[in-house]
Write a structure and sequence with these properties.
elongated, 17 strands, 21 helices, five-stranded antiparallel sheet, single chain, about 650 residues, alpha/beta
């Protein structure tokens, strides 16, 4: 079977070798001559001459224009055109010219046709090569995409996918064509559906890269977290052509994130529990150390109180034995009152040290306060270390909470004692100074009082000094310190408008200085009363006294009657309310703060004022610390126990004066 050849297959891209071309031309010429001779018998010479043209066309198309022209020349030379010329009666020149022109046109047309066929053949060859390269590239891309462990897809502008890799198809467990047309909303988790649809619409409308995270149902029935990243693609003309997307299975990462969050929450809970336990342990340790410190003071304090009680008991006994000796009685009364007041100051100092005293800043003379605190400080230091108290700022007044100040000095002295070996010395001194701006830390320029505690102990290096005021930092042995002493001192100084500094070198002892701003004040600030003047008589009042302690009630009633007032007593709040409901006339109610029953003095005062809005009320208590917080938030004044007639009279006068001004 003969296969048909296309014109492109007959026309070579290059000119054939010389011998092949010569053979083609000779064969063409021979065919032309034979046909010419055969046709001479029944056609005219002009028509017969055209039989040469196919040979010219074939030579030109296959061998090229050069061989077409060569064939024409050979035809003219070898064709023996004379008989034809004679037969038709046309001149030789006209016949030859007509034949030559026709042959030349045939060659030119055939040459142009050959060039067109060659170009078309080359174009088809290039297209075939490009198609083959495209197929190779596409195969390579699909192999690469199918080997990737992530989902990959390509979408058109209408959202339909035109490509998906093997991982994508395997995730759905469907065929390739089914996967291309699959509606992902069918496998999207119901809780994520609304959110994802909203985010997807917004992302596709923006034609910018966007990311989605949701749970999708895999073909095996398990929901998997997939994070998809879609990026727009553009055609060669710059027009939007759809999106290229990839999807990562992040289920394990999500589980790890949830596990980590759960672990963090558990860890935070455990840390909170540990911190709470630590705080509780530190509080217990601090209380234990406070008790230990108080225990160290017990011997000396007991000695002081025994001396005071000896004076009081002895004076009362002598007055009872010699009631008629007025001179001795006055001396004994003065001695007993003096001892009692010293006992009161000692109690206040103990409360300040244990931080159970209500704290309020007030102008105080530090030198006077140090002198009053010296006995307690000596008891804290003991006999192994010498203590020198050398105040050098007479008349200097600062605005501080006296209890906090005494506690700060006690902390500094106790720390110095712990750092000082037996035979060493601790020196407490005061010095008025004038500081420039930021001369000491961040303090502004002005007048300050420096309260310094020096010791001859082991001293500290620079690293220890840098952390000395940090909470819970301590250089003491385990269980011997909380690290809160110096931090409390520093906090007190800063809250008082000053600061605290440490100056020390290893083996050279240490000096801790408190800088407190000085104020203009009366030199008598915080100076103890020289004596109790006789109370001035005031208006006669009918007083409702509410006190559960019988002895205290009897004594206060006696003081009130001595001031010229009428007194009606009640042992608790309900009894007092009963008297108020009975419409007995009262000008003043003096009530204890803490009483038996379910009503406190504050509760009683509220109900009493509700019954009688114009009734002046005064609270009284011997308690300290947090118990007094309820009284501090009320409009009624608080008279602290112990008090004497002068203090009671002054408190009543102040209360009535305040009520009159209202």
């Amino acid at each position: 079977m003969i296969r048909a050849l296309s014109p492109l297959q007959l026309v070579p891209r290059r000119s054939p070798p010389f011998l092949m071309a010569l053979g083609i031309s000779v064969a063409a010429l021979a065919g032309a001559v034979l046909l010419r001779g055969a046709l001479l018998g029944f056609e005219n010479a002009t028509a017969l001459s055209a039989t040469t043209f196919p040979a010219l066309m074939l030579a030109t198309l296959y061998a090229g224009p050069r061989w077409g022209w060569a064939t024409l020349g050979a035809s003219l030379v070898l064709g023996n055109w004379a008989p034809l010329i004679t037969a038709v009666g046309v001149s030789n020149a006209a016949v030859v010219a007509m034949f030559t022109i026709s042959a030349a046109l045939t060659i030119l047309v055939s040459s142009s046709f050959r060039e067109a066929l060659v170009r078309l053949d080359e174009a088809n060859a290039a297209h075939a090569a490009a198609q083959k390269n495209l197929e190779v590239t596409e195969s390579r891309f699909r192999t690469l995409a199918d080997s990737a462990p992530i989902l990959m897809w390509v979408t058109r502008t209408d959202g339909r996918r035109e490509f998906a890799n093997k991982t994508y198809v395997d995730f759905l467990g469907a065929g390739f064509e089914t996967a291309l047309d699959f509606d992902w909303r069918k496998v999207l988790h119901p809780d994520d559906l609304a959110r994802i649809l909203q985010e997807q619409v917004a992302g596709e409308a923006s034609r910018k890269l966007f990311t989605l995270e949701a749970r999708f149902l895999r073909h095996d029935g398990e929901y998997r977290w997939v994070r998809s990243v879609s990026q727009p693609r553009w055609d060669p003309d710059g027009a939007f052509a759809g999106f290229i997307g990839v999807g990562f299975d992040i289920t394990d990462a999500k589980r790890a994130e949830e596990d980590l969050k759960r672990i963090n929450d558990l860890l935070a809970e455990r840390v909170q529990e540990a911190l709470a336990e630590r705080d509780e342990a530190e509080a217990a340790l601090q209380r234990a150390q406070k008790l230990e410190a108080v225990g160290q003071l017990t011997g000396g304090v007991a000695h002081d109180f025994n001396n005071l009680l000896t004076v009081v008991i002895g004076a009362l006994d002598l007055m009872q034995r010699h009631p008629g000796d007025e001179a001795r009685r006055e001396r004994m009364i003065d001695a007993a009152l003096g001892a009692a007041r010293r006992g009161e100051r000692l109690t206040q100092q103990l409360l300040a040290f244990s931080r159970r005293q209500a704290l309020k800043p007030e102008p105080v003379q530090v030198d006077v306060m140090l002198k009053e605190s010296e006995p307690l400080l000596r008891r804290a230091v003991g006999e192994a270390v010498a203590l020198v108290v050398a105040p050098s700022a007479p008349g200097a007044v600062v605005n501080v909470d006296s209890s906090q100040f005494e506690a700060a000095v006690m902390n500094l002295v106790v720390n110095a004692r712990d750092a000082t070996p037996a035979g060493g010395m601790i020196r407490v001194e005061t010095l008025p100074v004038r500081l420039g701006d930021r001369q000491v830390e961040a303090l502004e320029a002005g007048d300050y009082l420096c309260v310094a505690v020096h010791d001859t102990g082991a001293g500290m290096d620079e690293a220890t000094i840098a952390r000395a005021f940090e909470p819970f930092f301590t250089t003491k042995a385990q269980g011997r310190g909380t690290g809160l002493g110096l931090s409390q001192v520093y906090g007190f100084a800063r809250q008082s408008g000053g600061t605290a500094t440490v100056d020390s070198k290893p083996g050279k002892g240490a000096s801790v200085c408190l800088y407190l701003p000085r104020i203009d004040g009366d030199s008598s600030a915080a100076t103890p009363d020289a004596g109790q003047a006789s109370p001035e008589p005031g208006p006669r009042l009918r007083v409702l006294l509410v006190e559960d302690d019988a002895q205290v009630a009897e004594l206060v009633e006696a003081m009130l009657r001595d001031l010229g007032h009428d007194v009606r007593r009640a042992e608790h709040a309900d009894a007092a309310l009963a008297l108020l409901h009975a419409s007995e006339p009262f000008d003043l109610m003096l009530t204890d703060l803490i009483m038996p029953g379910d009503k406190s003095g504050v509760d009683l005062a509220r109900e009493a004022v509700a019954l009688r809005p114009d009734l002046p009320v005064m609270l009284s208590s011997g308690y300290t610390g947090e118990v007094l917080s309820a009284a501090e938030d009320t409009p009624w004044p608080l008279l602290r126990k112990p008090y004497g007639p002068q203090q009671l009279s002054q408190a009543i006068a102040d209360l009535l004066g305040s009520a009159a001004r209202k």
